Amino acid sequence: MIPDEQLSSTVEKEVDLLGCELVKLDLISRGRRLVLRIFIDRSGGNVSVDDCVKVSKAVGFVLEGEELIQGPYSLEVSSPGINRPLVKPAHFERFSGYGARVEYSGEAGEKKTVIGEIARVEDRSIVIVSAGEELAIGFDRIIKANLHGENWDIGGTKGRGRKRTGKGRQRKRF
Q1: How far is CA 92 from CA 68, 72, 98, 124, 142, in A?
Q2: Complete domains list, the chain, with CATH
Q3: Is the full-model pTM beyond 0.85?
């Protein structure tokens, strides 16, 4: 379900007021209940739990007041995550040089997928390098795009996992 323009602009305005960027907004039907998923980012830093709570409270308050969603709904606010969606041309520019997975409609309307490096953004398209070949994809043909294949080190914990030896905690026996 595609959110309407008024809902999108209202949410984006509230997110901006809190110093965050609206990356993506999804309105999904889960039986009789709708789920509004909001993905936010913060320039110059990571999204904190406090950021998500603030956005959730502010957006929830405004949505209730303006009754933009009819019926029961759940509101979820989170960071874009490791495989962050790439939605706006600015996202592709920001992550130029990174790996991406792009689903797009081909010339005959068929669904295609390419995995490669974002080379650059041109006029109304992105250029992806895959297997040494450059492929230009118009923004109007992109169905879905995400960062892909990055070797992320989240929180400096890489390689610090607890080694499992098969031995549990020793129990005292009486």
Answers
A1: 30, 35, 9, 12, 12
A2: 5-78 (3.30.300.70), 89-151 (2.30.30.520)
A3: no
